[in-house]
Amino acid sequence: MLRRNLFASTLALGSFICLASPSFAEAPESAAEKAELTKAKSEIQLKQYAAALKILKPLAETQNSRSAEYHLGLMYMNGEGVPKDIKKGIAFFEKAADQGGKHAAYNLGIINAEGLGVPQDFSKAFKYFKAAADDGLADAQYDVALLYLSGQGVTEDKTEAAKYFDLAAKQGHANAQYNLALLDLNSKTPGDKEKAFALLQKLANNNDVDAQNVLGLMYLRGDGVKKDPKQAANLITKAANGECLEGEYDLGVMYHKGEGVPKNEKLSQSWLRKAADGGYADAEYNIGLLYERGKDLPKNEVLAKQWFKKAADQGDTEAKQKLAQVEKKDQKDAKQQTDSTK
Predict the structure, then answer these.
(1) Which residues of 143-164 are buried (b: 16+ CB within 10 A; e: fewer)?
(2) What are the residue boundaries of the structural domains of the chain, listed by start?
């Protein structure tokens, strides 16, 4: 399952300076500016916001410091030392972005993608994300790839999606590595499945449960690797125990079919139910089928309908069709009952 959670990281409203790096979010342009910003950072850490503002405002207003503009934007978005004002925060981010501030551009991308104080606009989000991505920001590269993949704010383009996933992956972005592996896995280009396997194995070894599950499915199906049901069961069990919903579902199916593990209907239902309770649509649909058929679970049409509806509400096509059939039958039964009482 592709990780499509937009966006790579939430708007860093609580961080004055990028915590992932000792440098400033927007690099200072001079040693003097850096010294002033270091003082401001210290004041922020002490929650002495008024003192920080005395440093930042002159830098932003008279020296057009993009780093000061960026951090003033954060303060206004957070209401730190100033009344919370999203519009002012956005205005400062825009000033910083116009001067090439990649973190400011990235935050503007999130603001527009999520509709934070502005109408949701994926076209604007793409523009800002791409500016930050082309300036080397891995999170932005990941989000640009997601937008290309989904066709939100830009024409859908899997080739461009793969390109930006690759750029972020080379910087160690785990979600980008995972999505790039899935694109390679579904590719018909020779050698791409081997690349997918290598990426997934690396992620799986680092306890990435989604990667463990996909790698397990590769072994189960013999897809790009020699078929090995026992290794598949080992990996998918790890994923399921790590609360990967898809892994819980797949392990439930394996116990139901006796693939890689002994057939065990009790364990099958346990894992399917766990995935269904977690909101995994395929599991919800299959729990509904079990109740409808009354073979492995006691027949219960009311519960079957409830589970079909849960899956249908998430957009599951088969569940929608099944729910329509059930509701049509309910209407027919109700009509027959009404007619019989006349």
Answers:
(1) bbbbbbbeeebbeeeeebbbeb
(2) 1-147, 279-342
Question: Measuring CA to CA, which residue among 102, 88, 127 is closest to residue 21?
Answer: 102
Q: What is the DSSP string of 146-181?
A: HHHHHTSSS---HHHHHHHHHHHHTTT-HHHHHHHH
CA distances from 15 to 75, 91, 174, 203 (A): 9, 18, 22, 28
- The tokens 């995972």 sit on which residue? 178
Q: Residue 342: is its pLDDT beyond 70?
A: no
Closest CA to 232 of 259, 195, 263, 205: 259
Q: What percentage of residues in the chain have a pLDDT greater than 90? A: 75
CB 287 within 8 A of CB 273: yes
Distance CA 273, CA 248 (A): 9
Does domain 1-147 fall into CATH 1.25.40.10?
A: yes
Mean pLDDT of the chain: 88
Question: Is 21 exposed, middle or buried (CB count within 10 Å of its CB: 0-12, 13-18, 19+)?
Answer: exposed
DSSP per residue, 180-217: HHHHHHT--STTHHHHHHHHHHHHHHTT-HHHHHHHHH
d(CA 93, CA 75): 11
**Unique residue bearing structure tokens 């819980």:** 248
CA–CA–CA angle 210, 216, 220 (5° rounding)? 145
Q: Specify the pTM.
A: 0.84
Digit-coded pLDDT (tens) for 295-325: 888 999 999 999 999 999 999 999 999 989 9
CA distance 286 to 298: 14
Query: Which of 328, 329, 324, 294 has the alpha carbon at shortest distance from 308?
Result: 324
Instruction: Please give the structure tokens belonging to residue 142.
Output: 């990941």
